[in-house]
# Entry
Amino acid sequence: MTATQERPSAEIGQSRRRKEDQRLITGRTRWTDNIQLPGMLHIAMVRSPFAHATITNIDTSEALAATNVVTVLTGADLAAEQGTLPTAWNITTDQKAAAHLPVAVERVAFAGEIVAIVVARSAAEARDAAELVDVDYEELPAVLDLKKAATDEVLAHPDLGTNKSAFWQFDSAGAGTGTSVDDAIAEARANGILIEREYRQQRLIPAFMEPRSFVCDPTGEQLTLWSSTQIPHITRFFLAVVLGIPENKIRVIAPDVGGGFGGKLQFVAEEIIAVLVARRTGKPCKFTETRSESLMTAHHGRDQWQTLTLAATKDGTVTGLKVDLLCDLGAYAGTVGGGVPILGAFMFNAIYKFPAYQFNCTNLFTNKTLTDAYRGAGRPEATFAIERLMDELAVEVGVDPLEIREKNWITHEEFPFTSVCGLVYDSGNYEAATAKAKEMFGYDELRAEQRRRRESGDPVQLGIGISTFTEMCGLAPSRVLGSLNYGAGGWEHAAIRMLPTGKVEVITGISPHGQGHETALSQIVADRLGVAFEDVEVLHGDTQISHKGMDTYGSRSLVVGGEAVVRAADKVIERAKPIAAHLLEASVDDIEFSGGRFGVRGTDKGLAIGEIALASFAAHNLPDGVEPGLDADATFDPDSFSFPHGTHLCAVEIDTETGGVTMRKYVCVDDIGNIVNPMIVAGQVHGGLVQGIAQALFEEAVHDDAGTLVSGSFVDYLVPTAADTISFDIEHTTSPSTNTMLGTKGVGEAGTIASTPAVVNAVVDAIRHFGVNDVRMPCTPERIWRAIHSRDGGDGTPGAAMPHFSEEEPGRDSVEGADQ
Amino acid sequence: MTRISLTVDGAQVSDDVEPRMLLVQYLRERLGKTGTVIGCDTSNCGACTVHLDGLSVKSCNVLAVQADGSEVTTIEGLATDGTLHQVQESFRECHGLQCGFCTPGMIMQSVDLLRENPHPSEDEIRLGLEGNLCRCTGYHNIVKAVQHAAAAGGAS
# Structure
């Protein structure tokens, strides 16, 4: 029995190498597309090439006659059974939305929408036959531009009569959590400083590495859907509700899932189609998207215009912030869809003590791919806006941007702090994180170098960017979600099975897809129950095993799911105590549990938890009235969000003659509460940083005038490569969350949320002396060059600068810059 | 259909394939070598990287018929006699993977990189892996893994 073995130190806090890796590094993987079942059929989609059109005719005869084609189905064929795709979050009770059919019947509203399905014996034959489906369209005017959508001149859905889905406001004066923002603005206009800006959050694509894949097997008693999803439990619920299949007849499995970043947090048309086709044919069916299909039709993220007014006194004390957002939902309201900007509603005030705040959000439809959650979901947009504004305020006041932040942030003595939105920040220490980051960065030295370069007119200028961010994580308190009109709760479930041999199975409702939860939860349970790390097996992602859960997104898995595991473990200990007391012939009150051993206080008598597990399994000698077994489960619903924070500092060099950006140094100090596995945390931060940096410098989903996604492959959509990025210096300060026993705060989204404004602030800082106060994202060399040279008095390119255009560094290119 | 015969991960195989069948499709669909994966359709992502006669190739960019008579090594054949290749060990040791989808290609490319240049600088590693995309790690720990493998004599 291993339960009593001595371990050198606690598991929590150790950089345990991951349990998941042995399979992944040897190719012993279970991606959905790997699944092959007897008689399996393959699905290919016929998709609209038009952004907005009426379907006038579909001729499937040629496709039906093609080799090994089993059936071809149109929206009309499926109209009676396909249902409509649901939205989990109607942000207002009168939110408008057009019905989103899995397969369009009369009209398509974005390029890529499915109009027909081909089912064949092989994937290649299905795709060949899809080319033979002849669809006639009558094009309709398409609205593609977000600001034009707001005018309602062209409608994405004519029957709705407007492009406006919903308007949502938070006002601190109205909510009683702060004062009037309009008063603050009026006062600042008269006697203070007013910063008025418009920022663009470009459209991004999550671009997880594993294309989405779905396999449905209808042959068992329960219909089984394997899905490359972050949300197997929610998917099961939606399948039941949308298709009317009894929930007890559905099993959803998320096997190995290759990344998500919010991009697999939706219940999608392709899942419904896989199920419907499997039911119709009686055969297992598979659909795996191509990368181009994925980029074009799996949802996009961000896509906002932000109009911002920051009011301050002349010394730089912020008195109010007003936010007006236009948000592009794309053609339909997605699973989370319209709620994404609302996740940012309480974060524009960030770490600061603003007395007045107002947030206004208008969600609009366009004839583009729908938008939904993408890493950070609403919070990166908010953090970008406020951190850019704080830099602008520092310039107005004439002080260092760190100084202006310090003047306005919540000091560590002030926690717990109730924000202007009414949220209670439980803990944090912005001073400590910033001091540490400054030292690691060599802040003062870099500022001195920046001055030298500026004074000497160096063609390569240095810029320093700052982002002192916080985020709300640990989604989410169910009552808060209810008050925001979200359709579900935010609790998480866990169960622990104590096996007779002393081994442990942990069942969790979270659904990992790269985060290393099997390792982290094993560490937690090993500590809590005093068993060996290797003796813990974490099971997840199959509704037959993990029957209950809310899945993985919103930096919730450890904060909410980990806490549920802790509580389940504590229940196991409580169940074992009376059995231990009985076997040790002691009073329950004298039983102490420590390091995996139940001891009798004041004696050296004791039994290992594994021995109790075996005794309770045999059940030969249990106290009267005690059930055999030690298994326990727990469901944890947090009372509050968690609020990780951090200070990120970025140094970039900009070649003012080419606009080329070279990242020189990136330092971040994140306070994410207690850390279970520092190695895994570092990985989350690194990956998050690069996604945020990619928004700042590289990525944009670009549509042409006809609504076709022109960045629809990895040739054009610039996911950064190893050659585009640098190594990072990351550290932590620790202010444990006071809301949970684990004291963790969540880290999955931190890097992405913080890094984008740090990079753009650095870019602007490098060229501000040319009169530049903004560069639109992605900050391509072309945009940077134009920003510099549109302000320097010249109306053309200086001849001497021209040769440098041919000397661009590889990997610094962009779609927009391609014609330069 | 065209008859091809080749060696994959040490085993002799022979099949009739459509001339248009890609090597990656052959590996996955005919041989069940699902350790090698497909991440894109434009040969940008490198997830399908294998070794063809000892050199790394993107197997979505090679027709199965082109591999006739060749020796192919996939991620599933990299470990020998149950012992992991040093690069595999280093990826685990340095947390060079998260979701693991790009990992087979990333490891196969790293092995080839170290074969060409046993002691690469950070810049050389970054350039050498430019054809392999990863969305999870930000490449930081992948670079460290390759450095770790190089220090441990991973080229051999």
User: Anything to note?
Assistant: DSSP finds 22 helices and 28 strands in chain A. The two ends of chain A are 69 Å apart (CA to CA). Residues 463 and 668 of chain A are 16 Å apart (CA to CA). The longest strand of chain A covers residues 318-330.
